[in-house]
Amino acid sequence: MSGFVFSEKPIQIEEGDGPYLYDDSGTEYLDMGASYACVPLGHDHDAVQSAVSEQLSKLTYVQASYPNAARTALYERLAETAPDPIGKVWLCNSGTEANEAALKFARSATGNSKIIATMQGFHGRTMGALATTWKDKYKKPYEPLIGDVEFVPYDDPDAMAEAVDDETAAVIVEPVQGEGGINPASDEFLQRTREVTEESGAALIFDEVQTGMGRTGTLWAAEGSGVVPDMITAAKGLGNGLPVGATLCRDWIAENYGSHASTFSGGPVISAAADATVSTIVDEKIPAHAADVGQYLRGQLESELGDAAREVRGEGLMVGIEVKRGANRILKELALNHQLLALPAGRTVVRLLPPLTITEEHADSVVDALVEVINE
Length: 376
Ligand code: PLP
Fold this sequence. Notes:
With about 375 residues, this protein is an alpha/beta fold. The protein has helices at about 35, 45-60, 70-80, 95-110, 125-130, 135-140, 155-165, 185-200, 220-225, 250-255, 270-285, 285-305, 325-340, 360-375, and strands at about 15, 20-25, 30, 90, 115-120, 150, 170-175, 175, 185, 205, 230-235, 245-250, 310-315, 320-325, 340, 345, 350. The chain is built from 14 helices and 17 strands. Helix 9 (about 220-225) links the parallel strand 10 and strand 11. The two termini are about 35 Å apart. Pyridoxal-5'-phosphate (PLP) binds near residues 95, 99, 122, 123 and 124. Pyridoxal-5'-phosphate (PLP) binds near residues 95, 99, 124 and 178.
């Protein structure tokens, strides 16, 4: 093997079906991380597979400067499902690129350069998005990154109000921090951030790369907070496993975006996948299901784990369990002894981002396994 970036797990995954993955010997695993939230509808979902196969049989790729029905349909679907008045769409291939574009658009549209981000936040690993990411571990080896970035404590409305001024181009914030440990922001924080950015003319960017696609119980977490930002960025679950990202913008941003492009922006195949994903999530009312099962899962975790966990937190099916000892031991035992795949968020948080289609029975099996492993 010659790959060198990701650390390999001792399980070779070869097939998927709904919330399950199968290794090379046919052992079934419940994928409670949805492979980093990338398959909100579960693995190999029929509607997405068919849309992709049909598009592949017609046309794999055409450059974005020629209109194409699959790409146009996705533009329209995203514009129609984004909170009003967000209605313009830029397509790319990943979360970091969606944020990179949002930061560039904000600088161009405002003429300012200062960017405000939050402590413990995570926005990606390209030079611009990385500069707005909190952890030094991700940044230090690559410095200097882009400048004029200031960090404020997450969920602190006064600190945010103090930091935003007439020279601010953008505030970038996750409505629920993912990598930072599953930390939901209060509505008060998001609303105050909206007020001060509106007053100063800065662009408010909601990074919904992890929270989007119904994960927190509404299609966009923005809907739950009652705040409409100037841009929403999306990726991960947007193509139910295919690589696609989006930067959704209000008109004033789109009209002054500067000069930005990407060769693979909105290729027909990933557009077909994303359109099928979003329309299935909306038509089948998946966000409401995620809200219900998420509430059940968090309730069961709290009552069954009791003092064995420090805290259970999250929204919808974005769940963090703050444990007393290292999360990695727990994750390893869940995988090897209970065939349950979950994720870390820092050293002490077990993170659950399952497919949004899981049932209460799946939730029960997760709670049973966690109770056993955490109490060992
Ligand atoms: N923003 C958030 C909130 C994320 O959770 C992630 C990835 O974990 C990113 C951005 C970066 O996305 P990608 O890995 O697709 O570049």
